[in-house]
Amino acid sequence: MVSFRVPVVLFLFRRSETLPRIVSVLRDARVEKLYLICDQGRNETEREQVGVVRRLIEKEIDWDCEVVKYYAEENRGVLRNIGDGARWVFQREEQAIFLEDDNLPEATFFPFCEEMLHRYKDDDRILWVCGSNYLGDAEALGYNHSYFFSQMLLPCGWASWAKKFNEFYDDRLAGLDDSAKVIDFRNSYDDNRLFAQENRSVLRTKSRIENDIARASWDYQMVFSLRVNHMYGVVPSKNQIRNIGVDAISEHGGNTMKNVMTERFCENETLPLSFPLSHPSGLSVPFEDSLTSIILAPLHYRVRGSIGALLKKALRMNEGESFLLQLKKRLGMDR
């Protein structure tokens, strides 16, 4: 059986239950080179969980595969494990595919990424290849090609190129200090509500980077980077990644399917793509409105977020921290 030659990166932390299912897909794909990037726990209990994960993943890799391990000795947090981890990989590889420990890929995800990485390698309009499609099946909506393009954040399972990722991915959101880029970011949105929602998330991420980087994530930097650089992602017409990490130890994906936003983004079924792929004739962006309706939180979520942001500003609170948590601290109710 032919091996899959594009390097695959698997980000790990404390979650072990999902790994056999993910590794089974990697095994079937005959992944030739696998990077294991694993964070370390923040306390003794978490360190024990991390130890279980590291032993399990190394045991599960039972095919002919070059394994490269990048294990943290101290806790990095999500940004430094994933964002900085991707940069570490791109010091060694020209291109790679990235999965987190709750990203269960469809088998066709790998040849799809391989073909897109080759086709758009030199196209400076394209920053990454996405595995997620929150629409589920664009072909069922009448779309006649195997993929389309988008500036939306679809972060579960992705691929990119070292040259473009290292140049354009603004991991520390330094571009927020550039007024021209801030204006470009604002002007890139057709929907003011989505801009307000994602701008709050970007500013919250920036605050965490500056005040408590271990709590900062990596994904809203991609939103900012796509939009200020006028770039796009390639999105498969059929969803290729199922998020199977809705549990008590989820870092930022949601802890229960009872949450309306978690329900929209997680446990979405995958569907195989057909090959040969059908390519759109140009840079087709047909589903921004449909994706906006999924990504945009319900009104009461957005109102609550706006009020919280205003109160934090008025009370000179940290944008990256929960309003209620900071209020409890000020009132001495956190003891």
Automatic annotation (TrEMBL):
Annotated GO MF terms: transferase activity
Domain of life: Bacteria
Protein name, per record: Glycosyltransferase family 2 protein
KW Transferase (keyword) present: yes
Family matches, as InterPro entries: Nucleotide-diphossugar_trans (IPR029044)
Organism from which the protein derives: Parvibacter caecicola
Gene3D superfamilies tied to this protein: Spore Coat Polysaccharide Biosynthesis Protein SpsA, Chain A
Higher taxonomy: Bacteria, Bacillati, Actinomycetota, Coriobacteriia, Coriobacteriales
Keywords carried by this UniProt record: Transferase
